[in-house]
Automatic annotation (TrEMBL):
UniProt-listed PROSITE patterns: GH9_2 (PS00592), GH9_3 (PS00698)
Family assignment from sequence similarity: Belongs to the glycosyl hydrolase 9 (cellulase E) family.
Enzyme class: hydrolase
UniProt-recorded name of the protein: Endoglucanase
Catalyzed chemical reaction(s): Endohydrolysis of (1->4)-beta-D-glucosidic linkages in cellulose, lichenin and cereal beta-D-glucans
Native source species: Coptis chinensis
Amino acid sequence: MRLSSSFSLVLFLLGVVIILKVDSEQVKPNYADALSKSILFFEGQRSGKLPSSQRMKWRKDSALRDGQDVGVDLTGGYYDAGDNVKFNFPMAFTTTVLAWSVVEFGNSMGSDELVHVTEAVKWGTDYLLKSTSTKNVVYVMVGDPYSDHSCWQRPEDMDTKRTSFFVSDKNPGSEVSAETAAALAASSIIFKTSNPDYSQQLLERAIQVFDFADKNRGSFNDSLGYWLCPFYCDFSGYQDELLWAAAWLYKASKNQSYWDYVVENVHLLGSSRENDKIGEFGWDDKHAGFFVLLASDLIMKGAPANNTFRTAADAFVCTVLPESSTIDVTYSPGGLMFKKGGSNMQHPTALSFLLLIYARYLNHANYKLVDCDGGKATGSQRLIEIANGQVDYILGDNPMNMSYIVGYGDKFPEKIHHRGSSLPSLEQHPEHLGCKDGTLYFQSNKPNPNELTGAVVGGPLPDDTYPDSRKLFVQSEPTTYINAPLVGLLAYFNSPQDLQ
């Protein structure tokens, strides 16, 4: 039977609608899958003796003699990025934020992922406990960054120096010590029910390490600057870490003395409106995180809207809002947040994480943000909208139509700047690979043989283009402190209705 032209047109249009609907469903971000992969990434960064539960099978045991030069067991912990050095400053920050993600959004991760992310936190805290086991000493780095960066070698093979560096009462390092205390305190919260003895151990050590950091004030730049710079030297001073650690100790212990410490010393961070660091949050600078943490806590307690911490947290938000006159970030044509510095993707993940936490508490208390330019009010939904846009960009809603999470989606970075991922695994190549034996693999234009699933790279250029090259480490190198806040973000957007 021949169909009429009008009936054929109706069928055609219905088909188009169905196809468009299917396509729309296909491109919708799979937050659950991205969350699972972003947590799995931490297994690829593990150092030390790997457990039988290790899921990223191409990784094997590495650095099993760390700490022998000082007679202390310093095995374990994480490699921070694509190299084989253990830097405690970014590692501790990663652990703090990963624990914070669980504190805020753990109930929305699902039971399996909650187990995995808790294991990821514990892998960090187990090592930080080892690093702080000697009185008046905090170990802050294992490895020689100069010799390590001159090699392209698997962590399982590395034969560069594994020197153990530390700070002490004679050569202080308040920033790294205080960040370690913050990590231990924050992590103690998530183990209170599941492992109370371990939680208590973490809290007691956090108190001890904070006391050490506060009584022996000084920067580790002064004693270890040659080894730390330009890798992870401190640019923002140590006052922010001391206050950040005290805030976490107060949250974990409810001890009034830590709140008193914060109130008495908050002036060291300067006025919220005059402070050019109010919009900073990362491994080096804790200003925005500190104010959002405390402002959110005070909001839940019904504090007046015009308290110091709330005012500063609002000022932070104003540095990120595109419509604000005090904006301190730029946005690419495709919508990705940019700030000055290295690996850019650390900024949209960390700052969006803070926006989301603050928005959640504002929403809970039915508060409004005063417009940054005066007059209008900006609701919490706007903050969530900005954070969601950054997450979706990372997952593939961008001009390149690619995901910046390795292994997520159909198109993602394949030539990441990462030694273990770019070199054949021990199963593929059981023979030892020396310092320079990996050079050909580094220079190769082929995709990495081992997928570092869940790794988020440094990200695209400001024009939204992404040159997939392991030689361009600013764009192609993943780091633990990019992933840590993303875990919380993905958990929220996977089931936001649970968190309102």
